[in-house]
Amino acid sequence: MLRREVWVDETGKVTRYNLAYIHHGICGVDNGRVVGYDNAHGFHHRHVMGQVEPIEFLSYEDIEERFELDYLAMRE
């Protein structure tokens, strides 16, 4: 399952996001999140197979591109 949640303010700026590839058969931790990106908890970070690491935020578009590349790599 792919989950894309994006919150946008009245000016069109992305204020919050949560992108995730969920597959309980591949990942039994982190609610099945194989890979994901979000900015919850006050910082931008990446989830990979139960591990969380901070990431540098350049733009939301950059995050979407990174997520898609990770998702495609994990699917193979």
From TrEMBL:
<protein>
    <submittedName>
        <fullName>Transcriptional regulator</fullName>
    </submittedName>
</protein>
<dbReference type="Pfam" id="PF20126">
    <property type="entry name" value="TumE"/>
</dbReference>
<dbReference type="InterPro" id="IPR045397">
    <property type="entry name" value="TumE-like"/>
</dbReference>
